[in-house]
Structures are given as C-alpha cells and as structure tokens.
Amino acid sequence: MGSPPLSGSVAKYSTPKKVRIQGAIDFLEAKGIPHHKNDIFRFYGASRRSGWRALAEPREFDGRRLGHTILRPEQRGRPSKLSASEFAVIERFIDNNGFDGHTVPWAGLPAAAGLDVDVCRETVRRAVKDLNLRILRPVMLERYPDPADWRHIRFSDECHFGWGPQGKKEMPAEKDMKRIHCWAAVGYDFKSSLTWYDVPGNSNGKMSMQVYRDHILEPVVGGWLREGQSFVLEEDNDSGHGTSKSNIVRTWKKTNGLDYFFNCASSPDFSPIEKAWQGSKEYVKKRPCWEDDVVKELAEEGWAAVKQETINGWVDEIPQIFKECSELEGGMTGN
C-alpha cells in the first residue's frame, strides 16, 4: 500500500485518531498484553478497515514519520540489513514456492532462498510480514476458490485471559496480572471444547512444544485422529507449534499422520477462530472477577454462545475475503 502523496500540511493525513490507534496497539504488543485489535478500533470509533489501514502506515510524531520498515527504509543512520535486491530474492522464493514457502521458519528463510546474509529472525519477520498477504492471496484464490474448499480445515489458536488482584478497580500493574490460558479449534460444522493449560515457569501463556504435544496434540487432536475424523489443522506461526525443521512437535505430527499448515502472519481476517474468541473475551471483560474457576466458567459461557451457523458463515466467506484482500493490494478487509 503506497504512502499518501505529500501535499500541504502533514496533518491532512496524520490524524489524532490514527496515532492513538497505533500507539495503543504498539504498547499492548510491546508488553505482551492479550488484546483484540477490533476492540481498539471500536474504542476509538474507527471501522475495522480504517483501523487496519492505520496500522499499515508508518508511525508519525509531530508531523515526522518515525521508525522504518524493510519495505520503507529509513534514510538516516545505518542502512537496512536486507538490501532491496536481497529482499527481492526472498520474495521470488516465496512466490515460486507458493503456500509451502510460508512454512519456512523466519530465521531459515534467507538461506532457503539461496542468500548468504547474517540477519536475525526479527529482521526477516518484519520484512516478510507485509509481503505474506501480497503473495499468498493469488495462490490461495487459485487453489481454493470455493467455500467448500475450506470446510475440512480446523482453525486453532490459544486465548489468554488476564485480571488483577481482588479489590482493584483500576488496571493493575503488569506484575500483578494473573493469566489463564486455553486452546480451541473451529471449522465448518465443528467447534471443539476449550482446553485449559499451564506452561510451567511461564506466566504469559506462550506455548511450549512439550505442553503443546502433551496437553493439546496427544489428548485432543490425537483423539480426533484415532476416531477417524478427516481434517487439516491450521495453526499460527508460534514456535511452540513446531515451526522449526526438527522438533518433538513435528515428530508427533509425522508419526500420527496429522495434516496441518501454518497460517499467514498478521492475518486475522483469514482465521475464524480469531472471531470466535470474541464471545469468551466479552463475557470475561463485562464481569470482572478474580478467581480462576469463575473466569473459566465465564469464558466457557461465552464460547458456548458462539453459534455453529455463525462459524460456518465465517468459513464460507474466506474466498471472498481473499478476493477483497487482493483488491486492497494486501491490505486488511473489513471482515
């Protein structure tokens, strides 16, 4: 998505609303606080489409654009670690390998593309994040153009609920936050139960490969496979899901014959599970409490309130979302 043309005052396209949306989400992501971007958009009175467009634009401060991306390199200071030609090589690699190219871990992507460069995982992730949608959309539209093509996929994800100590009405300090975590999956004519889990030594709920294998894959997903259910599991690119080439999670998937794929980064429009979580989040948010059992009960009630016919509609609209994304040149849709 190109930048707005410079004409007249910068304030013409640098609105306070946009800056507030950018700042709020940047803060929540930097602190690792669970949130849903659509909630932020609604709070500031912005539509989903306008909110996602605001996030796609460079950050600004006092009329000056701050921070640079690989696609919009900063002209001051040290140059980007990935040159334009190197990025073009990565782009061709993902384009030529289609959907399979998106399963390559960030850190290994330059080498897979034939580059001998010393860059960290985060540098590659930032460079490719916006590219994912731009390259993925024609591939997915060509391979899976009909709603029926998506009805065998089960979209999975984790959700985290946080709250403060009893008696505090204000937002608690991060050190006082308590969090509980669950996993679930949805699909056409399918909605799993919530599976609650803990990660030893980790309070933020970031999934570890051992917990994912022992508490999610083996008892839950493995149970579906043993019952003879036919499906493909969609997962995000969290390292706990076994995104590296060789690990205990990939071994389990291969041994048990699980068909799966990792979704496109920063693409909530394409994953119905992101929309399904809203019910549980709203139930917990509207009824503040401080006991694990009560929070879980509220989350379960919110989850139960999500109707299967609604989920079916989300799945069937995926091809249309890809089409709209293509028309927006990779930008987020209003869905």
Strand content: 5-15%
Q: Mean pLDDT, rounded to whole units?
A: 74
Main sheet overview: 6 strands, mixed
Uncertain runs are: 1-14, 61-79, 165-176, 329-335
Helix content: 40-55%
Rg from Cα: 21 Å
Number of strands: 8
Count the helices. How many?
12
Our measurement of the CA-to-CA distance between the termini, rounded to an integer number of angstroms, reads 19 Å
Q: Write down the overall geometry.
A: globular
The sequence of SSEs as H and E is HHHEEHHHEEEEHEHEHHHH
- Category by helix and strand content: alpha/beta
Protein name: Tc1-like transposase DDE domain-containing protein
GO molecular function: nucleic acid binding
Write structural notes for this entry.
By secondary structure, this protein is of the alpha/beta class. Helices cover 44% and strands 12% of the residues. The strands form 2 sheets. Strands 3, 4, 5, 6, 7 and 8 form a 6-stranded mixed beta sheet that branches. A hairpin with a 2-residue loop joins strand 1 and strand 2. InterPro entries: RNaseH_sf. This is Tc1-like transposase DDE domain-containing protein.
Primary descriptors:
335 residues, alpha/beta, six-stranded mixed β-sheet, two-stranded antiparallel sheet, 8 strands, disordered N terminus, disordered C terminus, Tc1-like transposase DDE domain-containing protein
